[in-house]
Amino acid sequence: MAQHTTDTLVELKQKVGSCIDEAKDRLHRLSKDIWSCPELAYEERKSHDRLVKFFSEEKGWTVDSHFKLETAFRAIWGPVGGKESNNVINVGFLTEYDALPGIGHACGHNLIAEIGAAAAIGLKALVERTPDFAVPVQVTVLGTPAEEDGGGKIDLIRERAFDGMDVVFMAHPSQEDASWLPDVAEHDVIVRYHGKASHAAAYPWEGVNALDAAVLAYNNLSVLRQQLKPDWRIHGIIKHGGVKPNIIPAYTELEYYLRTPSRKDLPTIKAKAEMCFRSAAMATGCEVELEFARNAFHNVLRNPTLHGLYEVNGKALGMEFTTDEEVLKNSSGSTDFGNVSFIVPGIHPYFYIGSDALNHTEEYTVAAGDDKAQFYTLRVAKALAMTALDVLLCPELLQRAREDLKEANLKEEQALRGASEAKHCGGAAQH
User: What's the farthest any 2 CA atoms get from each other in the chain?
Assistant: First the structure.
């Protein structure tokens, strides 16, 4: 396979950045349109349609408007270049576009969508303008809904939407530039208590108080926290606590998120939480039903090869990656990209958008829609496209990224086996 020299690779990286800059106005409008119409998980119809329109109007893309899910899409360009079409390298870029209830794009998913689009069209334009590009390339953009609630990427994995991808890229807004942060495993649960209504003043003894059960469950979990590992998290809300003070609540509902640094510990924390929920029902005489979410989010696997390449490219563009150990070691949030990281070599870096506001706040919503964020957003898109070029033009790097994935999966499997064995030995006497 033909190889480009280092000097040529540097030149190609500069050109891919220029290709992205050429489209900056279209990309900014795309981001602004998505930001202006925040939609919840699996309901992102306007944002979905806007992205589909964007790629349908870009020359050369084949667009599947409702790919596997109603608000998912796929846009494909290629394969182009090289001499052996059976050796096509399929580079994937992911977009997200769902928002949060009440506060809109407070996690900046409009910028994630813009980055995926920018990196994809920049790479496409670069390959098109490079005669005899060394390798046959396919660029795939996946529109992945419902990251905030539900896990659209996990649905798409189940539908084999990632089959054939060689490497996959996306980036997430934050307060700093970091090639990797410890996103953790998560499983959500809805808890419903059913009691019996009665007049709270005249004959309360006739009632079965579902609110008491919810409060006991809440307190049970609060007490449980002191027995959890320091990096495990349980947090939730009472979504429904009754209808009127003089009516014994016959129905209450809670929603909880359960998180651990590795997916291997999710079964343990789920079992502990379930005992808290069920004991509250037993104590109050209520019936309880637990509905665990269809999809559990995995932790994000680290890919040293791809993360290293991204940092080199980011620094060349002026990024200053955080060295704060508190940030780099402490658990971050959770993302359905974690599940993707188990099946395809990929990265999910974080990036500064020109604001110190915190994600999931009204202030971050404003920052995500501010024109100031555009410089940082397109810079990240360039870094991702440059990293894609590294992998495309050096087969050894792609092979190393694949080996990183294999090694990370092996460690996870060993950890799962270890956790299972420890559970079976848990009955041993302790002194």
Answer: 87
Residue 143: name the closest of 47, 240, 24 by CA.
47
- Please check whether residue 95 is in contact with residue 31, taking contact to mean a CB–CB distance below 8 angstroms: no
CA–CA separation, 213 and 196 (whole Å): 12
As a whole number of angstroms, the distance between CA 290 and CA 312 comes to 47
**Region for residue 419 given its phi and psi (left: phi exceeds 0; alpha: psi -120 to 50; beta: otherwise):** alpha
Could you tell me the pLDDT band of residue 331, with boundaries at 50, 70 and 90?
A: confident
> In this structure, how many other beta carbons lie within 10 angstroms of the beta carbon of residue 327?
16
Query: What was the pLDDT predicted at 361?
Result: 98
Residue 411: Cβ-neighbour burial (10 angstroms; 0-12, 13-18, 19+): exposed
Q: Which residue has the higher pLDDT, 421 or 308?
A: 308
CA distance 181 to 338: 11
pLDDT average, residue stretch 106-133: 96
Residue 1 clears pLDDT 50, i.e. is over it: no
How many CA atoms lie less than 13 Å away from 148 in the CB half-sphere? Answer: 23
Determine what percent of the chain is predicted with pLDDT higher than 70: 94
**CA distance linking residue 96 with residue 148, whole number of Å:** 9
Residue 353 has pLDDT above 60, yes or no: yes
DSSP-assigned letter for residue 342: T
What separation in angstroms does the CA of 5 have from each of 80, 138, 193, 217, 274?
Answer: 20, 22, 66, 63, 59
Residues 6 or more apart whose CB falls under 8 angstroms from that of 163 comprise none
pTM of structure: 0.93
In the chain, the amino acid numbered 231 is: D
SS3 content of the chain, % helix, strand, coil (to 5): 45, 20, 35
Secondary structure in 3-state letters for 81-148:
CCCCHHHCEEEEEEECCCCECCCECCCCHHHHHHHHHHHHHHHHHHHHCCCCCCCCEEEEEEECCCCC
For the record, the structure tokens of 100 come out as: 């949060």
Q: What is the pLDDT of residue 134?
A: 85
Scanning the structure block, which residue is given the tokens 């609630």? 149
For residue 242, what are its two tokens?
């009754």
pLDDT band at 132 (very low <50, low <70, confident <90, very high): confident
